[in-house]
# Entry
Amino acid sequence: MTSLAVHKTPAATGATGTARGRTPLRGRLAPVPTAVLLLGALYCLLPVAWVVIASTKSGSELFSTFTFLPGTGFAGNIRDLDAYRDGIYWQWMGNSALYAVLGALLSTCVSAVSGFTLATYRFRGRETVFNILLAGVLMPPIILAIPQYLLLAQADLTDSYWSVLLPQILSPYGVYLSRVYAAAAVPGDVVEAGRMDGAGEWRIFTRIALPMMVPGLVTVFLFQFVAIWNNFLLPYIMLSDDERFPLTLGLFTLLEQGSNTPALYTLVITGAFLAVVPLVALFLVVQRFWSLDLLSGAVKS
# Structure
């Protein structure tokens, strides 16, 4: 018994020494990624903090006070923004909400059906279709803007709500995410069991696959909602009537008043601050559904 104890002691000591030797290494390496994350957070949040603080300043305070010192003109800025052209800002916000909500919903539906189809069914040309979608992910939107305008002009749909909605319904990135998530979250055995029970393909998709794909589809919806809400180039090309402008284009017009009219900086900053509020609210509401873990399935073992 004594010899056994003697032989065990070095092993235990070695393991303890190794563990002790690794602890300082972790301590030395941990601050590096933490510092990088903090710098990244500071880089992203600093402009947001500036917008929040600048929205509280009047026109005179904006250029005469310290950058991050709050002002006293927030209520006046809201009144001026509300009074500008009989409250057209709120119409711009309503247009952005229409484009973003309806466009994101339609895009999510198309992505869900397309992703499930590409992940579940085997047909000739499936990989070719998927590779074309991947090429669409890599293609900058500015390349497609002019061809889309010419096509919609032929259909007499330019300068309408449809000219902004239609090009954003098909999202290659959304289809890609849906396909990857459906392949991971919807087991083939479950689909086959539904077929053996006599369920049709549409019923299998809506009753079996769709609930399993909810976390991935919420991610697709959020990405597409933010992309449409922040889109500037497509409305800029498609629209000429400012009553159909989204917020991005409407705020741009406040800066481009012409040589005889000064830019309305306080209105633009206050409008930009209010434009961020719906995005923050959306993330807070749906964050419990939001999942980027595309490798985790929805079926628990």
Q: What stands out?
A: The mean pLDDT is 83.
